[in-house]
Amino acid sequence: MIKALDNINLTIKEGEIFGLLGANGAGKTTLVKILSTLLLPTDGKAYVHGYDVVEEADNVRRVINLVSGGETPGYGILTVRENLWFFSQIYGIPNAKDEIDRLLRDMELEEYADIRMHKLSTGYKQRLNLARGFINDPQILFLDEPTLGLDVLNAKHIRNYVRDWVKNSNKSVLLTTHYMAEADEICDRVAIIFKGKIIACDTPKRLKESIADKTSAVIEIKNNGIKIDRIDGMEGLALENHDGITRVKVLLDEQSSISRLVSYLTNNGYNISSIKMNEPTLEDVYIKYVGMSLDDKQS
């Protein structure tokens, strides 16, 4: 039997944006589905706003909302405004017009209010999706990869809105993402999940400080599909292939280890085009704990 989640123990505070970092298949979406009452746990207990997600599921649903990246935000034949009205009535919100007008304004959807949803671009569909997530003014908002596939401007708009909403309302957000920069930018705390287990949890600043004595480097090699074995001093390794160039991201125990790595690469016939040393990032933290990047497949 495959364990999607394994003895996870988390507490998310009021007024906090909590980030969950993990590759596809790590258990992020499974956890969100359990907390949002879409999936029953086979063991253990989970509480949202003090309510048991199994025994008090109706109470949980009244205080949450869920937005997933890439999800259809409503019905294509309905306009943007009609979709928001439809979902407001599902939540039993009386006199929802003012709230809908506010969300249209905040999401910069006013000029699209009377456009049918199916005619919107991907970015504006996701803005509508987020507006739907706020329609019931939830106590806890689950955001499952909310900026997936979005351009820079739409992703930035969504991040800024979520951050301001939490700051002004003292409500909570659970954000799942595989975008390191996104988690670093808006999350108060971040947990790394790998094969269903939480393997690290702290503020982005403290997580990065935990590897401050390590050396982070990016080496570009003019080859595709190379294979690199672990060498002494290497604590993490990630490979990315693009246009005939392999980008080697490594975390080393000390700066002197870079010379051993370069020697290893040149002795194996690899043509190094550049070497760059970096300040530690959340990606380096992930590589340290998991041993690979978020783009690599889990086995």
Main traits of this protein?
six-stranded mixed β-sheet; alpha/beta; Rossmann fold; 12 strands; Alpha-Beta Plaits; 299 residues; four-stranded antiparallel β-sheet
What report would you give on this structure?
The protein has 299 residues and is an alpha/beta fold. It folds into two domains: 191 residues, P-loop containing nucleotide triphosphate hydrolases (Rossmann fold), CATH 3.40.50; 67 residues, 2-Layer Sandwich (Alpha-Beta Plaits). Helix content is 33%, strand content 23%. The chain has ten helices and twelve strands. Strands 4-5-6-1-7-8 form a six-stranded mixed sheet, with helices on both faces. Strands 10-11-9-12 form a four-stranded antiparallel sheet, with helices on both faces. Strands 2-3 form a two-stranded antiparallel ribbon. Helix 3 packs across helix 4. The longest helix is centred in the middle third of the chain and has 18 residues. It is globular and about 70 Å long.
